[in-house]
């Protein structure tokens, strides 16, 4: 194993780059802007230039680089081809091969960003020590990365871990962004929590949430929940019931060692984890009683960590 | 690769044994009784004796045997140990090692029976040509084996693929065998179909099912369904709705290439498959539209095939 590796987490606005020791230590991280113009044709060369500069600056010869891992917001086929990535403007881009050419033959691997984040949390985060893990990312939507026996489960159409679109309520009348109705992310995302909160407030329930000026946010719900607000408790209970039950169903399919909860909403911390785990324990199939719950611990760096882990296989 | 392999599917009553060419041809199959007395201590030696006899009879030297694959009705750990198998009376049996010793060092691998059946259907059955597959077995209960990238997903507690215990109805009042309420197998198994049928008949709906003397069976429901019976159509619709929707949720998790439907109920054939697939297509997340449905084609031999596939890895 060579001494260094690069993790590159490409987002629609910025690319996060990290220089790691292959033992798992993040030495330095920085960002560059994602240039999506002309169907994102400059993205990879911009990254290559930035990595080259870093190697010169740190006086690291190519021979000391184990490889470059790349995460991106779309499906990546096993052969390293991205069939389509709306956020980057890409169509049929062979990320791994193009980047290898740009970097003079350094090994490159690419995968979906939700999946590399899960791999990162397995390697150095909340799922450390585990080989099978489901990472659930509670943000604007509900993302998920599945790792079985140390390997990402990307799915045959790149839809592995699209648990945000599991139908949890067949009686829902409001459509999800995907066009269907009753998807998990209509309840268990930041957006979903705000929606549940609005419904509770519309019923005239009293809450210090009403004191918040302007927007209601998932963060505000958890903040006043921690202060003992009863309406917030009912909102959190509804959110946690839906998510805990969905994860109990997921356990009957994958039976992972641990559920790692991440994303912006998870900043609410242990009270959130406890609420979800309570409903999971109530609903879980007996064989899956021992599955653990953990908070993600790498934050926005999880993807970069996972990218590096990807090249160590 | 050596020329021959043995597949051994151990059940609570009989063990199915098969002599295969490692190219995938079943040359000969036979059965022996499973001797469960004294905590099943004779099971493996009985099998070893029977395999030895077959090798002598067919004049096959040990050197021509690639290995022996074993399927059994319980969880098998990665190290080949069966922590507990109620149907065989086993506790902490290292199947692989004990069998290797009994067979003079021939390579042995063991796995759960539902999982080897899925592997068998992937290798030579309804999922031929695929590397990722979910096999759903509709029998007394709902069994399932998951294969991702050619590998079984056993789960960290042996509960991988326990989809029969996914909760599909939070309003169910009748308990499942597992003690929880609203499990998939309360609707989508042979038992579940009979239960749905009884509910429909109790409402006084007319049906030629009423002409059946004695017991109503899932087979009878599908027989009269094919003859255009309206009540049977309503029963099948209810069954297919529940299963099709459950599989659409499973697709958002695993995104396999194909769902293979097997087990006794699947003998109803294409009309059953069509009914389930119709509800799947209605409910499926768009990225999972292309997932195929297929009938299992190896029947009770699927386990033996999968056992042989297991040793080819």
Q: How would you explain this protein's 3D organization?
A:
The structure is a homodimer of 313-residue chains. With 313 residues, chain A is α/β, with parallel strands linked by helices. Chain A folds into 2 domains: 4-120 and 301-311, Nucleotidyltransferase, domain 5 (2-Layer Sandwich); 129-297, Nucleotidyltransferase, domain 5 (2-Layer Sandwich). Chain A has helices at 37-40, 43-57, 95-102, 113-124, 185-188, 190-202, 218-226, 230-254, 270-283, 302-311; strands at residues 4-10, 14-21, 26-33, 65-72, 81-85, 90-94, 108-112, 133-138, 142-148, 151-152, 258-262, 292-295. In chain A, the strands form 3 sheets. The first copy, chain A, has a 5-stranded mixed β-sheet with strand order 3-2-1-4-7. The first copy, chain A, starts with a strand and ends with a helix. The relative contact order of chain A is 0.16. The A-B interface holds A 132, 146, 148-149, 151, 153-167, 170, 178-180, 245, 248-257, 283, 285-288, 290-291 and B 132, 146, 148-149, 151, 153-167, 170, 178-180, 245, 248-257, 283, 285-288, 290-291.
Q: What global shape of chain A is seen? A: globular
Q: In angstroms, what is the radius of gyration of chain A?
A: 20 Å
In quaternary terms, these chains amount to: homodimer
Q: How far apart lie the N and C ends of chain A?
A: 10 Å
CATH H-level superfamily of the largest domain in chain A: ATPase, nucleotide binding domain
CATH topology of the largest domain in chain A: Nucleotidyltransferase, domain 5
Count of folded domains of chain A: 2
Strand content of chain A: 15-25%
CATH class of the largest domain in chain A: Alpha Beta
